[in-house]
Amino acid sequence: MSDFAAALAALAPRIEARLQAEIASLPASGVRDAMAYGAQGGKKLRGFLVVDSARLHGIGPGMALQAAAAIEAIHAYSLIHDDLPAMDDDDLRRGQPTVHVKWSEATAILAGDALQTLAFGLLARADAAPTAAARLDLVASLAQASGGAGMVLGQALDIAAETSATPLTLDAITALQAGKTGALIEWAACAGARMAGADPAPLARYARALGLAFQIADDILDIEGDAALAGKRLQKDEAAGKATFVSLLGMERAKARARDLVAEAEAALAVYGTQAHLLQGAAQFVIARQS
């Protein structure tokens, strides 16, 4: 995992620089400033998955950074909108005031909208993938992963569950999180194969297990984590009575399930041999992280 941590620490500033440069090229406005603010910081794990999956398929970071910046733009948009009063109503993100608190709700909505469209613009450029067919595949698959069949659907199911008279079952919460959290992680991990026109199936299996482990780790951190390290309010789900993997499985079974999922993720990478050691480290990281 130490190799992964070093690689992530080295790559994250490059991904952020690429995304911030794109934002900075827009006309000056409060929306542009809010976009830059909302996109700064974070682990850049999704961008890392893009770049390392590209490396497995012979595509260097010079090209892969476009798609890495694109997925981080989508992720930033999702967080900005998720923090809004009509959604999760959070006032703190990454240790800083959320975008709607620092600016306004209207500016936050527009900043999220602009980050979303920026992502697709990045993927449509000639240097985003070796062929036009690969670029089209990246655009189409990201639209699927981020929209009404993916992340947005997961968000909608999560909101509906808050007022439902019927508590979520384990299968229902697994399906919800496969969209809300897992869809973007799966797109990121498969992006390198899509760029190269290769079969993304092994990386998709890896990512599905990774995404679910990531969410279980989030549920655990919401209870056991340090708010100062997390940079956001914790124990909100428990206070709201929301069903989570921890509430449904119990803490020890949730931790065991996360470990099993990491093992599944690592097993899916066997086809790549030792070349996949950084992605294996990423899987270990998601259950060892403190924020």
Structure explained in plain terms:
- The protein is mostly helical and 291 residues long.
- The protein has one domain: Farnesyl Diphosphate Synthase (Orthogonal Bundle).
- The chain is 73% helix and 1% strand.
- It has 15 helices and two strands.
- The protein has a two-stranded antiparallel sheet.
- A hairpin with a 2-residue loop joins strand 1 (92-93) and strand 2 (96-97).
- Helix 3 (45-56) crosses helix 9 and helix 8 (151-163) runs antiparallel to helix 9.
- The radius of gyration is 18 Å and the shape is globular.
- The relative contact order is 0.13.
- The mean pLDDT is 93.
The first-level CATH class is given as Mainly Alpha
**Largest pleated sheet:** 2 strands, antiparallel
Poorly predicted parts: none
How much is the radius of gyration in Å? 18 Å
**How are the strands of the biggest sheet laid out side by side?**
1-2
> Helix and strand string, N-terminal first?
HHHHEEHHHHHHHHHHH
Mean pLDDT reading: 93
- CATH architecture, by name, is Orthogonal Bundle
Shape: globular
Assigned CATH superfamily: Farnesyl Diphosphate Synthase
